[in-house]
Design brief:
Layout: H1 9-13, E1 20-26, E2 35-41, H2 59-72, E3 75-81, H3 83-89, H4 91-104, E4 112-116, E5 123-125, E6 128-135, H5 143-166, H6 172-175, H7 181-190, H8 201-208
């Protein structure tokens, strides 16, 4: 796993040319479900207005941008790691694995991979090693990372909505699996099932009771 310094504005400006994949993750903090990542290669000839960190956008705006990204991007792919993998590897390494899967699944090989945050795994595409950089707060600085943030966020939120339909007593549509009081109350009353991350301290503590 490589750790890179924060890049300068001049460095960031050089990323506007070439085939660049932006990568971001959603779902490191929740107690349930996959950690979801996305890799996106945007088309410079089909710009998308309003891209930003998904957390700074309304749900309605994220949904609209999700559709536009899917339509206009040169390539995008969603990667994930399961609760079992999270329990076996820990959340950091499972997230890195999910990012690698997202990049490996792209239909086109990027020249460069830009990752939100301060850590980046080693990326390959069809057996070829790729150059990568991590960028702190990159989801608000680099359009392709913003797009990846949106794809990952909308994908995971939809999965939480589906889980809510299957297990309405837990309230997943509201808290999205994050450790809120309402979520803890639901777990205490109804228990945990196979989509829970059993290595996470709050879940582990409840199971040990």
């Amino acid at each position: 796993m490589a750790v890179f310094k924060t890049l300068t504005d001049a460095d960031i400006a050089t990323f506007s040319t070439g085939l660049v994949a932006g990568v971001d993750e959603v779902g490191r903090g929740p107690l349930v479900g996959d950690v979801v990542t996305a890799a996106v290669i945007l088309d410079p000839n089909r710009p998308i207005a309003g891209l930003n960190d998904s957390k700074k956008l309304t749900e309605k705006r994220r949904e609209a941008l999700f559709d536009e990204i899917c339509e206009k991007a040169l390539s995008y792919h969603v990667g994930r790691a399961s609760p079992l993998e999270i329990d076996e590897l820990n959340i950091l390494h499972a997230t890195m694995l999910a990012m690698q899967r997202a990049v490996a699944g792209l239909a086109r090989a990027p020249e460069l991979v830009l990752v939100d945050g301060n850590r980046s795994p080693a990326f390959t595409h069809q057996g070829l090693s790729l150059t990568s950089h991590s960028i702190v707060k990159g989801d608000g600085l680099i359009a392709s990372i913003s797009a990846a943030s949106i794809i990952a966020k909308v994908t995971r939120d939809r999965e939480m909505d589906a889980l809510d339909a299957a297990y309405p007593q837990y309230g997943f549509a509201k808290h999205k699996g994050y450790p809120t009081k309402a979520h803890f109350d639901a777990i205490a009353e109804h228990g945990v099932f196979d989509q829970y991350r059993k290595s996470f301290k709050p879940v582990k503590a409840l199971l040990e009771r």
